[in-house]
TrEMBL record:
This is UPF0145 protein C7M71_026830. It comes from Peterkaempfera bronchialis. Gene3D superfamilies: Hypothetical protein apc22750. Chain B. It comes from the Bacteria. Belongs to the UPF0145 family.
Length: 126
């Protein structure tokens, strides 16, 4: 297996000190939901870079990972996630449940990446 790059280049997610917990589950073990604040989302739209499109087109002829596009998608998801957290924090939430990503084509010029979920206030059960 070749060099896959650093975790920051090809991965994402929250760090250990996040003040708004974001999970893909409907509940957090050991916690109860005290208040549901509603849906929150973070959105970004990324245009396609002509150079990366040409490179991706050439790479698709021979197969393999499109690393430039992978990095762009990771950056876009992380940006959408940060905006989701910001929205949740602004509403007074300390967690987002059932977080999902949605990626769609944006008028044939790029991609819309949306992170969404339910903003809640949780507390530990003892």
């Amino acid at each position: 297996m070749g060099n896959i790059g650093s975790i920051d280049e090809y991965g994402g997610g929250q760090g250990p000190s996040a003040d708004v917990l974001v999970v893909t589950t409907n509940e957090v073990p050991g916690c109860q939901v005290d208040r549901v604040l509603g849906e929150v989302f973070g959105l970004t739209v990324r245009s396609r870079h002509i150079g990366s499109q040409l490179g991706a087109g050439l790479k698709s002829l021979v197969g393999g990972e499109l690393r430039g596009l992978t990095k762009t998608l990771v950056q876009s998801r992380n940006e959408a996630m940060a905006r989701l957290e910001e929205q949740a924090r602004a509403r007074g939430a300390n967690a987002v449940l059932a977080m999902r990503f949605d990626v769609t084509e944006a008028a044939d010029v790029g991609a819309e990446i949306c992170a969404y979920g339910t903003a809640v206030v949780i507390s530990r059960t003892s």
